[in-house]
Amino acid sequence: MYFGNIISGNAGTIQISPEGGLPVMTGGVSLQTKNSVFSAASFLINDGLANNPTIRRYFKGYSITLPAEAVLLSNGRGSTMSVSNFTSNASAMGLNGFLTGTGYLNIGATLYVNASQSLGQYSSTSPFPVTVNFY
Amino acid sequence: MKKLAILFVVLAGYSVTSMAQVSATASSTAAVITPIAISKTQDLNFGTLAVSPTVAGTLAISPAGTRTPTGGVTLPAVTGTVTPAIFHVTGLGTSSFAITLPGSITLDDGSSHTMSLGTFVSTPSGTGSLVGGALDVNVGGTLTVTAAQAAGTYTNAAGLQVTVNYN
Questions:
Q1: Which of A134, B29, B62, B131 is most buried per CB count within 10 Å?
Q2: A–B: how many Cβ contacts below 8 A?
Q3: For residue A127, what are the contacts with CB-CB under 8 A and spacing of at least 6?
Q4: Residue B23 is nearest to which of A2, A111, A130, comparing CB atoms?
Q5: CA-based nearest distance B18→chain A, Å
């Protein structure tokens, strides 16, 4: 999940949508548009999983579990920002019921930027998990 | 058929919980960059000009500091201080930025005589790219002089405002 190049200054949030499109900023946070890379995290749900006859035979459907706790991004020099409010495009893909075919499960979230955020390259201190539960 | 039955039994006995979950992980990144900033390092100075009693004119200064008079305006031997405005821009690396110049502003001599200053031009023009996190922007403009413009020192203290934004 990429949140782009954030210009240090105002506190606020950057929300990445799993449906794609430009991020939504609040609080006066601004991005450097030219060099910024922003995207939702993407997981490939492949045929092996969705069309596995065993799974289709014994399970009625599935649900997606997103991280319940905030994920911390650190610049390696003591400054952090937190990411939470994870969302997915599962329902938009029509995946609320049974998995069909192959598709990309996209995960979006909200990044919380502090006032005068210290400069640097921030990355997640540990990767965040996404779980598909069959029932 | 027998084979299938065995398979069925094996699967029925299979731990449902271990079959029922698959997980993957992803990481998240962001970069926080220094804001763009601008400060003035040199004022815009037109120097000394001479006017005609009957013919209006203009005096332009290029971003390089070259004066060009038109109409009734002439340049006397005593030039005075002639400089383009210079702004120092700082920010991240080689980022590009947009430059916004003002429309027109008014200079006055403190005795109700005024001259209009406009048609601002800059080098670079429109957009610029930082080099090693910095770049100077030179600004020139054109002064409009009436016939028989009253003698005096005309100034504008803070109207020449230049704005820069990452683009």
A1: A134
A2: 113
A3: B25, B26, B27
A4: A130
A5: 10
Q: At B128, which CATH number? A: 2.60.40
**pLDDT of the residue at B14:** 43
Here the tokens at position B97 are 């930025």
Domain range for B39:
35-166
Q: What CA–CA distance (Å, rounded) separates B128 from B113?
A: 36
* Residues A53, A38: Cα–Cα separation, whole Å: 37
Q: Which residue has the higher pLDDT, A130 or A91?
A: A130
Specify the number of domains making up chain B: 1
ipTM over 0.85: no
Of A49, A54, A122, the CB nearest to B30: A122
Any CB–CB contact under 8 A between B36 and chain A? yes
| pTM listed for this prediction | 0.73
At B75 the pLDDT is 97
Please judge whether A75 and B32 are an interchain contact, meaning their C-beta atoms are less than 8 angstroms apart: yes
